[in-house]
Amino acid sequence: MLKNGEIVIDTPGMRELGLESANLSKTFADIDELAFMCKFHDCTHASEPGCAVQRAIFDGTLSVERLMSYQKLKKEAKYEGLNFKQIETTKLNEMFSGVGGMKNVRRFAKSKHRER
């Protein structure tokens, strides 16, 4: 036990503890309720007009840190249950989504290779 009351737990053989996405809704019920009031059902709570979550941050009823924690845990929960290759594929698709995804990147690379 640490001086501030925190406890360090050693988990031999385990590399990490998993997340249950169902618990996110319980832990962050306030954010889920706000998200339900957003103008768009697929709101990312970043810059969309009519975002109830961003309005709550502006009003001071929700902290930026709490939203960041929620988004971080939600992203981690998305990868739960995927194998390494699936995780890497998902990350690459997200990274190249601005240029049409990995499919377009592969096409571009093949066309450049043919030009040689």
Proportion of residues in helical segments? 55-70%
Task: Figure out the total of helices.
Answer: 6
Mass-distribution shape: flat
CATH topology of the largest domain: Ribonucleotide Reductase Protein R1, domain 1
| Average pLDDT | 82
Strand residues, percent: under 5%
Tell me the name of the CATH homologous superfamily of the largest domain: Probable gtpase engc, domain 3
Element order: H for helix, E for strand: HHHHHH
Low-confidence stretches: none
Instruction: Report the CATH architecture of the largest domain.
Output: Orthogonal Bundle
Protein name: Putative ribosome biogenesis GTPase RsgA
Keywords: Hydrolase, Ribosome biogenesis
EC number: 3.6.1.-
Organism: bioreactor metagenome
Question: Helices, strands, pairings?
Answer:
Elements: H1 21-27, H2 29-36, H3 52-59, H4 64-79, H5 84-95, H6 102-115
Helix pairs in contact: 1-2
What does this structure look like?
By secondary structure, the protein is mainly alpha-helical. The chain folds into two domains: 19-81, Ribonucleotide Reductase Protein R1, domain 1 (Orthogonal Bundle); 82-116, no CATH class. The chain is 56% helix and 0% strand. The chain is built from six helices and no strands. The longest helix has 16 residues, at 64-79. The protein is flat and about 60 Å long. The protein starts with 20 loop residues before the first helix and ends with a helix. The model has no long low-confidence stretch (mean pLDDT 82). This is Putative ribosome biogenesis GTPase RsgA. Keywords: Hydrolase, Ribosome biogenesis. One of its GO terms (biological process) is ribosome biogenesis. Its EC number is 3.6.1.-. It is an enzyme of class 3 (hydrolase).
